[in-house]
Amino acid sequence: MYFDIAMPLTLFGVTMLSLFLNGKVEDKLHSTLEEREFGTKDVVLLVGMMAVMISLMAVVRQLSLILTVLFMFAYSMILFIFTYLFSKNHWYVAAIPPAVFVLLYVFLRETAAWTYVLSNVYGVIFAVLVTLYLSSLFTWKSTAIFGGLITVLDMILVLVTGTMIQAANTARSLSLPILVTVPRIPLVITENGLQPISLGLGDFFFAGLLSIQTFKKYGKKTGILSTAAMAVSFFIFEVLILYFRIEFFPGTLMIICGWLPFVVPKALKKPTQPQVAP
After folding, report:
1. pTM (2 d.p.)
2. Are 10 and 182 in contact (CB under 8 A)?
């Protein structure tokens, strides 16, 4: 069967969760971050840092221990920050979620429970939390610049150099929760069990960022419809990928191709001038 509904629905569900929670936490995050916003230089720097990190993961596998520590520290900090902000600033309460995460990783990372369940659960949690945190720093302009740059970077790293694929394999070998993996639906059974399909946390963040910024720019209805459009685009691309047996494809391209046709006409539409009564 050359189609799958599991990952498009997962993308839609996680993105909608980020969109819903953003309204609950945005004011709190803005006040904490002192109303800071990303400018063009910040976006370029962010994309550059992402390219460097991905390249390091792909090329310098001897740094696996350092990379693991860096990722675990980043995951723990995002858990601590959100728990601290919404636990009435009780640091001892905020320390519990990251401690539990680290202990589960250390003792269960080589078990089926971690591989098939906990890694995916934490992957979704981190995708949502990172989306909520960084979306509060983006504006409509910086989102557009980031969207263009990250899509081009993703296409180069996946289709040209293959660096993204090597980095994903490195992270998978370290059991780091940077991918969300679900079985294809309709189910496809192979000699190794159910055939899975995976999507990186960066792609979930990208879809969430576009959805939240569209909501803030054009309202709730447009934000939800743009989220659905991204999921539909992902489904269509996935059909082509499965039909032509393409193993890897840039998820950002699949997502933005659903978002652009939906949002660009609205962006180009001239605002109506208010009529003045005679």
Report:
1. 0.93
2. yes
Q: What is the mean pLDDT of the chain?
A: 90
| Ramachandran quadrant class, 35 (left: phi over 0; alpha: psi -120 to 50; beta: rest) | left
Q: Which regions of the chain are under pLDDT 70?
A: 1, 33-35, 60-63, 270-278
Nearest in space to 206 (alpha carbons), one of 5, 6, 18, 2: 18
Secondary structure class of 193 (helix, strand, coil): strand
Pairing status of strand 189-190 against strand 179-183: unpaired
For 214, the token pair is: 């569209």
Spatial separation of the C-alpha atoms in residues 151 and 264, rounded to whole Å: 16
Terminal CA-to-CA distance of the chain, rounded, Å? 64
Rounded Cα–Cα distance for residues 73 and 160 (Å): 31
In this prediction, residue 62 carries a pLDDT of 61
Alpha-helix residue ranges (DSSP H) falling in the chain: 6-32, 40-59, 64-85, 91-94, 96-108, 112-113, 119-135, 140-155, 163-173, 201-218, 220-243, 251-268
- Counted residue by residue, the chain has a size of 278
Per-residue pLDDT tens over the stretch 209-236: 999 999 999 999 999 999 999 999 999 9
**Residue 162 Cα to chain centre, angstroms:** 20
Please name the amino acid found at residue 69.
V
Q: How many alpha carbons fall within 13 Å on the CB side of residue 193?
A: 5
